[in-house]
Design brief:
Length: 109
């Protein structure tokens, strides 16, 4: 029960877990960014123009940076061990597919 196909699936699951761990801080940063922007729009507290600007600017900056970082991490790490391609189809990245959309290798043990 230790065939090459199993190895591909096991290796993919390791990469998947590792990608998740590396993405976590960026998702946290994106959440902070959205929270910061939401604060400007959805709270009535009397804030100065200065703070509103920095909450908006910082929020969008954090959101944009985490968007770029998340894409880079996925491009670099979330790949099929059999063919090396990114695990995505025309709808986007597949979170835990049974098989590789490019080469058809089994990705779940
Ligand atoms: Zn593949």
């Amino acid at each position: 029960m230790d065939s090459d196909a199993d190895q591909v699936a096991i290796q993919f699951q390791e990469r998947r877990a590792q990608t998740g761990r590396r993405l976590r801080p960026w998702f946290a940063m994106a959440a902070v960014g959205f929270g910061s922007v939401a604060l400007v729009f959805f709270t009535p507290f009397p804030s100065s123009e200065y703070w509103r600007f920095w909450l908006l600017f910082g929020g969008f900056l954090a959101g944009a940076m985490s968007f770029v970082a998340i894409n880079l991490v996925i491009q670099a790490r979330y790949r099929c061990p059999a063919c090396g391609g990114t695990v995505s189809d025309d709808r986007g990245v597949l979170l835990n597919p049974d098989t590789c959309p490019r080469c058809g290798a089994r990705l779940r043990p």
